[in-house]
């Protein structure tokens, strides 16, 4: 009985571990979820367009981090282990996606939405702060953040100790 209960605690981790390994080993490949990530990225530019050119350029990346993070926080505080794990994996995948874009800042080899008419966000961002020559380091930082998100996702059963049922307060 004890073994069965422990397996139930770790089933989300067991299911998600191969996915996290696959995503980590295929950094730079386009995955199905990246269609949604691209939509969120582009929407982020619109949301942050009121804050000037630099924040506008950063807005796409910010939204790729903010949206999954909101779900992580929501489900973490509701002690929903599996949902927290899923959204941590999505956050990690976004970090890996961002790492490719950031590391491409100097080369600008990626095909961007809008073709030659648009500028490369990370070329502009890093160029403005004098870090363009360090684009691969910035890219690696995002890879490490992605890996950390995956590790935390797998270890959620240790972090969230007890899943309590949600209590709805229906008093008017």
Please write out the topology.
Blueprint: H1 2-25, H2 33-47, H3 53-77, H4 81-103, H5 121-128, H6 135-154, H7 156-159
Helix pairs in contact: 1-4, 1-6, 2-3, 3-4, 4-6
Q: Notable features of this structure?
A:
single chain; mainly alpha; 172 residues
- Which of globular, elongated, flat, extended, rod-shaped describes the shape? globular
Biggest pleated sheet: none
Number of DSSP strand runs: 0
Give the oligomeric state of the chains in this entry, treating copies of one chain as homo and distinct chains as hetero. Answer: single chain
Taken together, the total number of domains comes to 1
How much is the radius of gyration in Å? 19 Å
Low-confidence segments, ≥5 residues, pLDDT <50?
none
Helix content: 55-70%
Instruction: Report the mean per-residue pLDDT as an integer.
Output: 91
Determine the N-to-C terminus distance.
Answer: 43 Å
Strand percentage lies at under 5%
Secondary-structure element series: HHHHHHH
Description:
With 172 residues, the protein is mainly α. The protein has one domain (39-159). It contains seven helices and no strands. α1 (2-25) packs parallel to α4 and α2 (33-47) packs across α3. It is globular.
Summarize the structure.
This protein is an all-alpha fold. The chain has helices at 2-25, 33-47, 53-77, 81-103, 121-128, 135-154, 156-159.
């Amino acid at each position: 009985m004890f073994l069965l209960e422990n397996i139930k605690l770790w089933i989300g981790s067991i299911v998600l571990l191969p996915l996290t390994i696959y995503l980590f080993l295929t950094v730079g490949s386009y995955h199905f979820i990246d269609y949604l990530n691209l939509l969120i990225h582009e929407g982020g530019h619109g949301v942050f367009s009121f804050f000037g050119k630099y924040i506008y350029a950063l807005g796409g990346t910010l939204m790729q981090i903010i949206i999954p993070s909101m779900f992580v926080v929501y489900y973490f505080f509701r002690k929903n282990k599996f949902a927290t794990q899923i959204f941590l994996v999505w956050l990690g995948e976004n970090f890996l996606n961002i790492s490719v874009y950031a590391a491409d800042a100097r080369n600008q080899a990626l095909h961007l939405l809008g073709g030659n008419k648009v500028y490369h966000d990370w070329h502009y961002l890093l160029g403005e702060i004098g870090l363009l020559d360090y684009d691969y380091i910035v890219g690696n930082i995002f890879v490490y953040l992605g890996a950390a998100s995956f590790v935390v996702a797998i270890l959620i059963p240790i972090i969230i100790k007890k899943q309590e049922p949600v209590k709805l307060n229906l008093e008017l």
